[in-house]
Amino acid sequence: MNQQESFKQIDEFKRGMQDLIVDTTSVSFVDGVNGRLYYRGINIAELSAHATFEETAWLLLSGKLPTKSKLEGFQWGLRNMSRTQEKVIRIIEEMPQLSPPLLVLQTGLAALACIDRSEDYLEEENYIEKVMRIIAQSPVVLSAAYRHYLGVPLLEPRSDLSFVENFIYMLFGKIPTKNQTRCMEIALIIQMDHGFNSSTFTARSVASTLTNFYSATSAAVGALSGSLHGGASELVVEMLNNAKNSNDVEKYTRDLLKSGSKIMGMGHRVYKTIDPRAIIFRDLLSQLTPKDEKDSDLKLLTRVEQEARKYFEEKMMPVYANVDFWSGAVYKKLGIHPILYPAIFAAARMVGWCAHILELRQNNKLYRPSSQYVGEINVPYIPLDQRIY
Questions:
Q1: Which residues lie below 8 Å from residue 164, measured CB to CB, with a gap of 6+?
Q2: S-S: 322 plus which of 145, 234, 251, 268, CB 3.0-4.6 Å?
Q3: Which helix H or strand E contains 68, and what residues bound it?
Q4: What is the DSSP letter of 387?
Q5: Cβ atoms 118, 355 nearer than 8 A
């Protein structure tokens, strides 16, 4: 190969890999044109209306809804694997008190990899056990991180509670009501998976090297921690408080847009209409908001959305609310601190990441994209004493 061929440039590239198909999947399908999301072919609206967390998790991991016996076995396994890992807890307690729970989860997953030192992560019969342990331990690590953040004693999971009930109990020390449990369950269900988003692509890319499940999910948590991915719901609540204090929500929204700032939680790279998860979260917020509540978050966010939509329509740029626009307000209604919003997202998405790793293991190929080099060639080496810049 001559030098010209060696440095041949790629004719076309997709910055940020937008619209670039890098692999196939049957885990979930994001229909951006019609605003629909499917898990293994089932519409997310149906799952959020009828399914439990454990049913949906099994669906994503295995490809089918579980039978009664399989569901009971899966529930038992998650409870059994949620026993607190003392070494991981000690690591959490040594961290600075105000460490964000999401970053603690990333550390906790890496620590779990050190504890589970078996080399059987390449053995197919051990896959489901590995992912169940990761899914079961994530709420334990997150709740420990949150209670450490608050400076209050950590709590052990209870064997008489469901996965979602335990998660809420370990966070707040109280057994949740049925309504609180179901709201949190729906929130977790609709955030379990969403095509090849940034964190899922990260999980698959890392997993394609045939590393262990802990390393791949830990890397995915790192991707999720960015404000352009998992941190937007936290920023929406901050925006909501600013809008409340402005005394003129419409003017605040329009001034924000005119200044070139973003309305957090609006717009999506894939959806060309409203995000179907946003519709479900808005309904949850409506259920949690008393009809006579004055200046409710529901009313204020509706006004922000309407004003933003009007602004974008005037510019012939249709922009719609995404999942983050409403999720933060729902968590706020449930009494959850904003520091936990992206962490809850991660607890839900852990199922999807694991499902994608399992899928990749069936026909693995190392992810190794190309890049287009734009630098100089054959630059001479300049001795140190001759360098003048």
A1: 53, 181, 184, 185, 188
A2: 268
A3: helix 68-81
A4: -
A5: no
266-320, pLDDT tens digit by residue?
888 888 889 999 999 999 999 999 988 888 999 999 999 999 999 888 888 888 8
| Helix residue ranges per DSSP H, 315-340 | 323-333
Q: Which of 148, 297, 324, 356 is catalytic?
A: 324
Q: How many residues does the chain have?
A: 389
The residue written with tokens 């019969």 in the block is 125
Cβ neighbours for 389, distance < 8 A, ≥ 6 positions apart:
none
**CB neighbours of 80 closer than 8 A, spacing ≥ 6?**
136
Residue 340, both tokens = 């936990």
Please check whether residue 240 is in contact with residue 331, taking contact to mean a CB–CB distance below 8 angstroms. no
Distance from C-alpha of 363 to C-alpha of 371, rounded to nearest angstrom: 24
pTM: 0.90
Query: Could you confirm whether 116 is annotated as catalytic?
Result: no
Phi, psi of 368 (to 5 degrees): -150, 75
Q: Which of 95, 99, 101, 113 lies closest to 230 in space, CA to CA?
A: 101
CA pair distance 191, 168, nearest whole angstrom: 17
Cα distances (angstroms) measured from residue 92 to each of 95, 109, 154, 215: 5, 11, 11, 18
Q: Catalytic site residue 268?
A: yes
What is the radius of gyration, based on Cα positions, of the chain? Answer: 23
pLDDT tens, 47-56?
Answer: 999 999 999 9
Beta bridge partners, 37, equal: 30
Q: Rounded to whole angstroms, how far apart are CA atoms 258 and 339?
A: 29
Out of 268, 275, 297, 356, the active site residue is 268
Rounded Cα distance between 251 and 254, Å, is 5
